[in-house]
Amino acid sequence: MRMQFWKKTVDDIYCDNPPHQPVAIELWKAVRRHNLTKRWLMKIIDEREKNLDDKPYRNIQELEDYGENTQSSLLYLTLEILGIKDLHADHAASHIGKAQGIVTCLRATPYHGSRRRVFLPMDVCVLHGVSQEDFLRKSQDKNVRDVVYDVASQAHLHLKHARSFHKSVPVKAFPAFLQTVALEDYLKKIQKVDFDIFHPSLQQKNALLPLSLYIQSWRKRY
């Protein structure tokens, strides 16, 4: 019902008839002010709706698709707000969104495990002979860490691809991509603990993260 509400709300927004709901009204203002593409908003809703059944991703491609349709779509909208129409920026946004989706899945694994749910790609788990129960009992076996390594490596690869467009992406787009700083921070931390996804240090905040964000912004990098 909640997803259906937002689908109808987005339709009404693009008919200049938003419901009297604070978020909907502000979204309508943003759509009018920046001429936002309806498709990206609908993709976010559709993908969230698909994931309401709490099933694990069948393969890494499904996890990447989730990141593309949610996180990347949000980045495409952010680029539109910044007034940027650039193919290289779109390619970078696609890879950053996929990396964000993968890292979010990894970071949430201990939380989901505490509720007896595992969302990591099944094909990677099968490849290393790991069951959902291994994650539920917080196993630190090498094959469990190998699953985490494979998934994290895919996120790192997407970050690398996104940054390969650095010289071609308009500088004006860089603020939209600063989330790469937080993504890289998590990937470095998980590497330091040998891909033990349940290591307590991964749940601690990095007090220096705001400084890292400032430095990357000042250096005009992402």
UniProtKB/TrEMBL annotation:
Entry keywords, A to Z: Membrane, Mitochondrion, Mitochondrion inner membrane, Transit peptide
InterPro entries: Isoprenoid_synthase_dom_sf, Squ/phyt_synthse
Entry's localization field: Mitochondrion inner membrane
Coarse class of the protein's main subcellular location: mitochondrion
Family: Belongs to the NDUFAF6 family.
Protein name as catalogued: NADH dehydrogenase (Ubiquinone) complex I, assembly factor 6 isoform X3
Source lineage: Eukaryota, Metazoa, Chordata, Craniata, Vertebrata
Gene expressing this chain: NDUFAF6
